[in-house]
Amino acid sequence: MALVRLQTEDFRNLSPDPVTFSPSFNLLYGANGSGKTSILEAIGYLGLGRSFRVSRHKAVVRHGQTRFTVFGGLDRGNSDAEGWHSESAGLSHRLGIARDVTLKETVLRVDGENVRSLSRLAKHLPVSVIDPGVFDIVAGGPGKRRQFLDWAVFHVEPSFASIWQQCQRVTSQRNQTLRNGRLDESLLRVWDSQYAQLSEQLSEHRQDTFDQFARAFERLVDEVDVPWTRGLKLEFFPGWDRSQSLPEILMSHREQEFKIGHTLYGPNRADIRLKFQGRPVAETFSRGQQKTLVILMKIAQGMVLSGLGRQVTFLLDDINAELDMGHRAMLAQKLRSLGSQVFITSIEHPAPESLWGMGDVPEYRMFHVEHGKLTEE
Ligand SMILES: Nc1ncnc2c1ncn2[C@@H]1O[C@H](COP(=O)(O)OP(=O)(O)OP(=O)(O)O)[C@@H](O)[C@H]1O
Hints:
By secondary structure, the protein is an alpha/beta fold.
């Protein structure tokens, strides 16, 4: 599925006019502050239910307003529809998200019906963001890598979202018991058994998706032939030492967890360990190598979903500042061969031939962004 239509109301500085996008490549250019990232951010809301650049919904609602809305129309092929309001025929799915920041209420809509769970909305549009912040996947802490892995698990394994939520709930109840000030062994055992069961299920899904990802990554490394990638090792760590059962580990660390007041072993500690010749890449790789590695990981994730017949919408924000021409071209070519939908922002007028080569430019639409308004060229 690709996002072929977008319309927003009171979302940052964006104009409320509907826009029709290509299911393939979309090139957006415009001056600083024109609204390029805001467009990607609005698209991101439909696939992630949140902003990929700020944690509070409040920041994205137009100044002076209290509620924003984002509507999206998804389709497989090219859309020649006239405008959002004219007709919904031809669209495979219609998604909507509205947030009232004063009432703190969110309304989610799929195909004209209200839905309660964000996963019902998000599963229709796998959105993968590549922006300057993405490089934290290698350079940052385990949380970024968990988020990276869980995004794919969510799209690969339909039951993952519900198990993840249950596990978060039990973890929080377990943490409350640990913080009670009195070690309530019988209550902790009840939580431990539920927690261990959910943790096992969650980790199996993570492991399965990780294995698919690791195989895709290996294939990719063979294709791109970047010599230093040969010494790389990617490993999934579930959050505890699996040679022991989780309940045993929890029992033997009771005092430690009680002292700290929260759960120290389990899925909330999971990570993807990235090593080069036995050492963590964050300590050994140059900044440029780290960036290349993140790009390869993102493409490999796209390969996993594409292998399952899912089209990923990639949002490439401001990558000119981060990646040299060779890496940008490699990324553009791989995303094309995956059949992904891609949005690329830049300040300068882009030259598609520089990404794909003369005579081999894919189908694309080009937009100039000014004061939050998109004009197609
Ligand atoms: N809540 C808001 N309401 C109204 N305008 C906003 C809001 N938040 C940001 N803006 C403005 O919207 C504009 C668009 O910002 P955006 O980050 O999308 O620009 P950009 O084209 O990506 O810029 P750059 O090239 O500098 O990254 C900016 O001028 C900003 O000041």
